[in-house]
Every structure is written in C-alpha cells, then in structure tokens.
Amino acid sequence: MYSESDKISVFKQLRKTTGLILGVLLLFLIAAFAFMTQWPAWIGTAFLLVGVCFSVFFWGIYGTPTLAYYRFVRDIVTGRSHEVACHVKKVSESPVYKDNKLFYYEVWIDDEEGIERVLLYDMNKGKPEIVPERNYTFKIHENYIIDIL
C-alpha cells in the first residue's frame, strides 16, 4: 500500500507548500521595507504584520498537516513492521482525528492472543474494504495498517 514513491510525492507537496508560503512572506517583507522608506513607518509595519499573520495562518492550515503526513509516510516506509492475524470486530464508518495529526478509520480487532486492539487505517488511502466478523492478516507498523494481506 505504501511505497517510496508515496514518500517522494508527499515530500514534493511539502516542499511546494513551504516554498509558496516562504515566497509570499518574502514578498510581504520586501513590500514592507519599500513602504517604510517612502511612507510613514507604521504603514510598512502594518504590511509586515499582515504578511507574517498570513504566512503563519497558511502554515497552520496547509503546512503542518502536510508535514505530519510526510513524517507518517516516512515512518511507515522506513520503519519496522510485522504481521498480525486477527478477527475484525468492527470498522468505523467515518474517519476520526487521531494523534492530533491526521484522520484515520478505526478497525477494532481481536489479535492472536485474544487481546482487543484498535488499528488505524489511513483516510488518504480510501475507505478500507474490510468486512467485519471476518479473519484478516494485516501488515502493521505500531498500530497503523500498512497493508491487508
């Protein structure tokens, strides 16, 4: 389900988002200094304040989630994983916000030892095609589903 190309794709998106936000901040910075030399200083300061607020806002809206998803995919691709055979009890109908980072579908399972666990399926990979009350083997990293075997 995840590959090196996913990691590269998300990194390109992160680089593009960061570059765009830094470019806009630089434009506001240049314009603010130009205004400070020609008009009263408070106009340039106000323009700089608007640029900084704009950049911080869009970093929070677009940059931070992209960075979190890049780190998630990087950990999945480069980290250790193992397989677990289990009985699926329930799958959430809609994604939930977990770990204060990303959205996941929750999959409740009983693993080989009979312990009930919740595994997380990435919302960006679509709704999981997992039927409750059936047995599956998942490839997992921590509690994240990497692949359905």
Class inferred from helices and paired strands: alpha+beta
The whole-number mean of residue pLDDT values reads 89
The helix content, as a percent range, equals 40-55%
- Main β sheet profile: 6 strands, antiparallel
What portion of residues belong to β-strands? Answer: 25-35%
**Could you say which overall geometry the principal axes of the C-alpha atoms support?**
elongated
Describe this structure in words.
This protein has helices at 4-38, 41-78; strands at residues 82-91, 96-98, 102-110, 116-122, 135-141, 144-148. The radius of gyration is 22 Å and the shape is elongated. The protein has 149 residues and is of the alpha+beta class. The chain folds into 2 domains: 4-78; 82-148, OB fold (Dihydrolipoamide Acetyltransferase, E2P) (Beta Barrel), CATH 2.40.50. Strands 1, 2, 3, 4, 5 and 6 form a 6-stranded antiparallel β-sheet that branches. The mean pLDDT is 89. Strand 2 (96-98) and strand 3 form a beta hairpin. The N and C termini lie close together (10 Å). Helix 1 (4-38) packs antiparallel against helix 2. The protein has 2 helices and 6 strands.
